[in-house]
Specification:
This protein is mainly alpha-helical and about 70 residues long. The chain has a domain of about 35 residues. The radius of gyration is 19 Å and the shape is elongated.
């Protein structure tokens, strides 16, 4: 729970330190979330096609191929 509280506090606070350049954490967090959603979407679509295709024999065939 402490980790979730820290993440929540990090998301709702906008503390910019002057003179510090580097990664924008909100953009990084958003990119990771979008990447995760994309991987899940490709996996779920791939497993359906591989399930119908009896020739591959591997339910992860299309996911690995992408």
């Amino acid at each position: 729970m402490r980790i979730l509280n820290k993440i929540f506090q990090w998301l709702i606070t906008d503390q910019q330190k002057p003179g510090k350049s580097g990664l924008d954490n909100n953009i990084l967090f958003s990119a990771i979330i979008l990447l995760t959603i994309g991987v899940v979407m490709v996996y779920s679509a791939s497993i359906a096609y591989a399930g119908k295709d009896s020739g591959s024999g591997n339910q992860y065939y299309y996911f690995i191929r992408h």
